[in-house]
Amino acid sequence: MRKGFGIILIVVALMAGPHPALAVDPPYQGEMERLSEILGSLYFLQPLCRADLSTDWRGQMEDLIARDEPDDDRRQRLAGAFNAGYMAYSRLYRTCTDSALQAFGRLLVDAEKTARDIHTRYAE
To answer: Residues of the signal sequence (predicted)?
Structure first.
């Protein structure tokens, strides 16, 4: 019985000791992930429907990450959101349809609004 009590004391002592601080997401993380997802979708749809445009959505994503300077976990989540946006539209479209072109237009509006909201609410 005393042996079991000693193990409990060791566990409690270990739990009470110092722990590394857990990273806390900035308040705009969800919006950044949404913007990343939109950029990934645009990256897929542009060459399909608007090859005449020269916007480099992947480059914009890289710039967004560089400016935000996220830790590795957040960087991976942002990149994952970009890839998820790309994959979502790659499953739906093989050629440019009216629906794909409309989606591209809506995504452009949504990207601009989301970026503006992040800047307005959180920029110094």
So the answer is: 1-23
